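TICKET #2291
ISSUE: user wants both folds in one file
ATTACHMENT 1:
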Amino acid sequence: MTGSTPGRPYVDQPVADAEGARHLADVAADGWGLPSPRLLRASMNHVFVAGDTVVRVGIPNGDGLAQIALAENLADLGLSVPEPARPEVVVDSGLTASAWRRVARAGAVDWEAVGVGLRVLHSATAESPVPSGYPVADPRRLPWWSFDALLGELDGDIDGGALQGMRECLDRHAGWDDWNGVELVLCHGDVHPGNVVAGSAAPVILDWDLMCLAPPEWDLAPMGVWSRNWGGEQAWFQALQTGYGGALDGGRLAAFGDLRDLAATLMAVRAGRRDPRRASEARRRLAFWRDGHGPRWTSA
């Protein structure tokens, strides 16, 4: 699959108005006859739990209903994804609330099955599961992958040793974004343990907000380096590869994995300027670039 894609994915900015998100979740839950929602997590989206229903509040770059159509289309392909709980969304002040059936967790994730699912996704054409109004991005244009701009902005917040390690990583993977002649496939864009849960029948892949067109390694690379800084087991990645099958480019796997960790570090450094909790996490991540090792990273 080749061709041009939009610069922005379905969601690429966090919800800044926590009170507005809470208000919309309350309004939506009341209209849908759900219990009072409680906040589960706040990141790009604010995710609330209301009984057996998950209410997601976010700022989509597209039709709010398109996320429901996408989930239905992906399920038709045989992929295990969250099931919409309501056919409509609630919109207010630029925020959109949608309802999803809560996934009952059942044991450990079968990463080989996740690999099989990714192979199915990568074999699809963009026109097959992606509805009108749901953007499919060029991930190279995501703001957190603009390394030169971010390093220029954050230079004074990064110690010399860590900065040197970051620049060595960029030099090592120079040309990572040259995809001329590379077959691009439809990618989930953010496959990692936080976005996969063990459902009763199969692992469920969550959060399709970063769907993009990219080389297939884009979807497998995060797990290739997950055990290095985030914890977990390298065997998870091995199982993912087994399920996926087929040949993968080792150079792109390494580049995408390393640079994803670099992007995650830089975003933590930026967030740490205004949030002491994120500043603490940024220091944990900078230790890796300075020393080649350090404490385990968290999503805090």
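ATTACHMENT 2:
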Amino acid sequence: MVPAALLGVAGAGAAAAAWGWFEAGWVRLDVEPVRIRRLPQELDGLRIAHLSDFHLGPPSRGTRAVERAVDWVEARKPDLTLISGDLLSRPSGEAKLRELVGRLPNAYAVLGNHDYAVTKDPFSRPVVLDELGSARLLADEAETVEVRDRRVQIVGLDPRSYRRGTARPERLADASADLRILLCHFPQVIDRLEPGVFDLVLSGHLHAGQITVPYPGGRLRLAHLRWTYVEGVYERPGGVLHLSAGLGTTFVPFRFFARPAAYELVLHSVG
């Protein structure tokens, strides 16, 4: 006869797995105000959809989270849609990625380490992704667009040059642009930037911890115990960082107390 304690442990494990599977598709759709210094009056109220960490390919309810996020962004029609990396974990997800990204308005994206399978995740496979159709894929490149009669520059970093330490985003920045946005998969970039070069930095990578254990007053993020930035808005000398909780999963198809999220950032001027 199986001991009752063992049955209890097995039951708790099954319940935890079921919850983690459910939470991986239980996406938050957040509208967040972000205050930007010296933002031109014409750009006050600018709406930017920020999506990250799709990790399409492996079986996961994260795919449902990405689909729901794209539905939401498509319906809201933001001024810009910016995607901060880790789009694919396997080549099998490419068709779905192209289908979804093709629906996003005014979209720009960078890749992340998982797109090149530079990861400890044994289920990740490299992909070859040089373009995204209607979405502009930036790899150590910049694009300037006119929004509300103002010039908005989007600079996107290649994750490979970032990890090698050879990325120089300040060399791509246009000092004459009215708003300068940096897309980089890795949030630590905010501490490497010279003050005044970029106004807003969008990153992902950490999934808000993905697997966390709540305790009074906080959460223990098992995968990222020592990270300074985890999720949300951080104002630093290098600019304002918005760090996404991401939409997909890695290693295991679960999330615990770290729900996937899509964001609409509404920019407001300060100072």
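RESOLUTION: both attachments delivered.
EXTRA DETAIL ON ATTACHMENT 2: The longest strand covers residues 28-37.
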